[in-house]
Design goal:
This protein has 389 residues and is α/β, with parallel strands linked by helices. It contains twelve helices and twelve strands. The protein starts with 16 loop residues before the first helix and ends with a helix. Bound molecules: adenosine-5'-diphosphate. Adenosine-5'-diphosphate binds next to helix 3, strand 10, strand 12 and helix 10.
Length: 389
């Protein structure tokens, strides 16, 4: 029921929303009127040849709209200048309506933000509704309660640390609000498609990498509606030729809002790592992150304190300028593992920002050692899943 369109390439000229609407007028909807008049379209984003929108219908009607979605895809694709289209068919359950049957493969369940989630019974767990991704032993999330705490920097260095332990690792940048993997890796190109129309992840540092940033511009101000978020992420999870992986690290969007909750609930996660800075405020946010994963029965693998202390790049002296240690204390209090402390250091910033993260560029340095220690603590918790795959 949830399908997202593939992307494709053409020469880039600017495409307007009006052009998209004109093209969609030729697509008839199951309601007997032209698609733009059916009252089901989200706002259309047409950005530099890339077109995004969703068709929002009720769950019970979704099947009937699949053909319309495919025709809309063809119509948008035919517009000169379109380089990519991502069109989601989203089925939202009306409040109070009975749940739609769980999709068999690759499907997701809409989340109501306003209804408390009760998953005490393992049989109720949303995990049981999620199909695993064939070939991937463990999917883990790297999350933070708010932006700017170094979540993406941690995600990629953790992925590299896991790689250094001999694991086959993928990285999925699902940070729809600010995908940073293109910056962290220097990768810019669009993924190619297999003959089966699966996207081929880009390869860098021995990692298989996919980012929403490969599909949209890093700084484009896209407005993502909840259902579109999950459709796009689902496509990046399941319509990608990941091959065989021990671990897929998902760099989550920061925060604990509806989009994050939907993701946490619908991605088949084996666990989550929470990144926090020592400041009190960020710890409060981290607690929210913890609560979010617990709500959806995803095990929290631990907390990482980033920018934990300041390390002078010249003399190596350590200063606890932020009242360091808060995350360790908090982790103990909350009964989750404390995975480690990463200093605030110029080398971590400059290597990340230059597209060559510190575990890759300074493999025998002290920072790489810290990330590898954290990676092995994470790996130890995933051992069973990796061994069983
Ligand atoms: P987030 O994903 O939480 O928004 P980023 O990983 O993009 O955060 O990091 C934000 C900024 O902080 C980036 O410029 C990054 O290089 C820098 N940064 C992250 N962690 C560290 C660190 N431990 N030391 C120094 N700079 C860091």
């Amino acid at each position: 029921m949830w399908r997202v369109l593939k992307h494709f390439r053409r020469r880039a000229v600017s495409v307007t929303q009006q052009q998209v609407l004109e093209a969609l007028k030729r697509v008839r909807s199951p309601r007997g009127v032209a698609l733009p008049d059916a009252g089901v379209l989200s706002p259309i984003t047409a950005n530099d040849g890339k077109v995004f929108f969703s068709i929002n219908v009720e769950a019970s009607e979704a099947r009937a709209w699949e053909t319309t979605r495919a025709e809309a895809e063809a119509a948008v694709r035919a517009i000169p200048g379109v380089t990519m289209a991502m069109i989601a068919l989203t089925a939202e359950r009306k409040a109070g309506a009975a749940a739609a049957p769980a999709p068999r493969q690759g499907g997701v369940q809409p989340v109501s933000a306003h209804r408390p989630h009760q998953h005490q019974n393992p049989a109720d767990s949303p995990m049981s509704r999620q199909a695993p991704i064939p070939g991937i032993a463990a999917v883990i999330a790297v999350a933070s309660g708010k932006g700017g705490v170094g979540k993406s920097t941690t995600a990629i260095n953790l992925a590299l640390g896991l790689r250094d332990l001999g694991l086959k690792v993928g990285l999925l940048d699902a940070d729809i609000y600010g995908p940073s993997v293109p910056r962290l890796t220097g990768l810019q190109e669009k993924p190619q498609l297999t003959p089966e129309k699966k996207m081929i992840p880009l390869s860098r540092f021995g990692l298989s990498i996919m980012s929403i940033g490969f599909l949209v511009e890093e700084d484009s101000a896209l407005v993502w509606r909840g259902p579109m978020v999950m459709s796009a992420i689902n496509q990046m999870l399941r319509d990608v030729a990941w091959g065989t992986l021990d671990v897929l690290v998902v760099d989550m969007p920061p925060g604990t809002g509806d989009a994050q909750l939907t993701l946490a609930q619908n991605v088949p996660l084996k666990g989550a790592v929470i990144v926090s800075t020592p400041q009190d405020l960020s710890l409060i946010d981290a607690r929210r992150g913890l609560a979010m994963f617990r709500k959806v029965n995803v095990p929290v693998l631990g907390i990482i304190e980033n920018m934990s202390y300041f390390q002078c790049p010249e003399c190596g002296t350590r200063s606890d300028i932020f009242g360091h240690g808060g995350a360790r204390h908090e982790a103990e209090r909350l009964g989750v593992p404390f995975l480690g402390e990463i200093p605030l250091h110029m080398d971590i910033r400059s290597t990340s920002d230059a597209g060559n993260p510190v575990v890759e560029s300074e493999p025998s340095g002290p920072h790489a050692a810290i990330y590898r220690t954290i990676a092995s603590a994470v790996r130890d918790q995933l051992k069973d899943a990796i061994a069983a795959a």
